[in-house]
Amino acid sequence: MVRLVCAINIVFALQANQKEAQKAKESALAQLEEEMCLLKATEPANKRKHATLHLKIETDVQCHKDELQRLELELSGLKVSLEASQLNLHSTNPTESRFMEDQLKECLVSYITRMTIPVIEIVSLV
Q: Does the keyword Coiled coil feature in the UniProt annotation (predicted)?
């Protein structure tokens, strides 16, 4: 008789544990479904943001390339100008020629430095 009561108690305990496990499983599945719905709802907005950001990066890279090309053209013009001024100044005053040459070199280095850093930063983002 005692064994029967123990067996009944064990069966009730197992049923209670099974019900708790079933409730926990249902709760987890409901939470999973909710998360999946939220993910599906936010996916289009995330794709739009990604596309917008990608387009902005491409535009910025192209702007920097264009600016770099403009500066390279300006640099080549300055080099030609430097060569012409060197020819003129070497024949007149060597000290003044050296000063103008140094000034022009500093200007060229400033242009190149100013444009190289932003292009490197943007290219590393892509």
A: yes
